[in-house]
Amino acid sequence: MNRLEELSRQNRENYERYLKRMTESIRNSTKGFLPIMARQGKRILDVGCGSGVLLYAIAAENPEAELTGLDLNEEAINSLRASGAPFDLIHGDFLKLAEGKYDTVVFSSILHEISSYCPEESRRFTEGPIDDAFAKCREIMEPGGTILIRDGMLTDPEEQNAPAVISFKKPEDSEWLYRFQKDFRGFDNMDVCREIRDLGDGRYQVGRSFLKEFLCTYTWGPESYEREICERFGILTERGWVQALGKNGFSVETVTKSREEYEKFLSDRVVITNADGTPYEYPYMTVILKAVKR
Ligand SMILES: C[S@@+](CC[C@H](N)C(=O)[O-])C[C@H]1O[C@@H](n2cnc3c(N)ncnc32)[C@H](O)[C@@H]1O
Known about the structure:
binds S-adenosylmethionine; 12 helices; globular
């Protein structure tokens, strides 16, 4: 059992709530693009299908599709089965999938998990496990098949340590910033500034990449902390995603970037500015890519 399965089992109630929140966000978030992009495929695999929300959304857009959902989380698959979900459902690790042929493979918010929970510590938070996922796609897809990805984006190196200043509407929440600094291992082998400069009046100066990952954890609240602290949402930069797909035999057709809705979720909890006090522009959080197997 890997760390992700362990966390989901130990914390079953939280995991259910977490999936519910993910589900609620689909209509407003970039996830809403994926069903539209999946209109063409016949045999479609949703990897890390969780609550099945995307499968239902794809079925609505593409009634002819033969849909399969796969998830490492047994509870998620069992509850989809128990609810009579009209899809083929597989419980297991995508990287160990042994059979099946698909025209379209969808990865919504899962590739960063595959990297973040890689059992080999030296490969964790690297591109390696994402390459493994693309290699698996090559096995289960014919040329011309489509990969759809929605995932986090790493800030470009030249911007990642640019300073930003955060203050909390509840001053005691600054404790979460320090907890994150202590607990988050996702930047260990990177040249990312993890320093927190206490400016003395409830404001804290941090680097842009550090802040972005902190906000991913903070947005989900204390109940998801154990899980979120294990994950780095931004594994690859925009260019990194395109290169990783290219070297694994996929040609990227479209790239869409989004700042997601973090600003909306966070505006009543934090104030963020640039170091000079000017308004902060949230960095791109999410990227959506469509790529075709050569
Ligand atoms: C962040 S959730 C995303 C759920 C859904 N795709 C969405 O967009 O709302 C990631 C899901 O991927 C699953 N997952 C993570 N690693 C996996 C793997 N190696 N194989 C299959 N599923 C995996 C998790 O159990 C979880 O349900």
